[in-house]
Amino acid sequence: SPIVMSNNAVFYASNRAVEVQPGILAFAGMSEIALLDVRDPASPTVISRHAGAYFHIESLGGGLLAATRTDTTDLIDFGDLENPAVVSSIGGVTRKMKAAGDRLYLVVRDAGGVDQLRTYNIDDPAHPALLASMDFPAGSQSSAPAVLTGSFLLSPSVPGLDVVSIENPSEPAFASRFVL
Question: Taking the complete model, does pTM exceed 0.85, yes or no?
């Protein structure tokens, strides 16, 4: 599980905590996302709360977060720290997500049980645009966080590690599977 560092303090929180700006963490709990001021790590304080059972959050920069629920991924604007607001929602059971610039990569399980990589342009967060969709091969079942590295998305799966080229975000391509 990742460790979130802020102001020389370390917070262990899996994929449920991200820094939204220096000294401010968003933490996804079972019934809400809490914004915490951790500039004094010995005494963190709650700035605001956003209701909803979120399982994974990802910072998109500029006070914007992507947060997964059971059947949607919400884009939430935390620009006004005391009044966060959902600006849009993307349907689907999101199992993994990663963001890079104006791109949001979601690994979504479709109704038939197939995992798909969906690439969205989130330049306008109120209107995310689907750029591409790609099916993973059979066996790509895992809820472990995905990792972006250069022009590849690394997605842990049951048999090992799936590698997807995202060099062209409009045409992601399955590159290989490393079996452990």
Answer: no
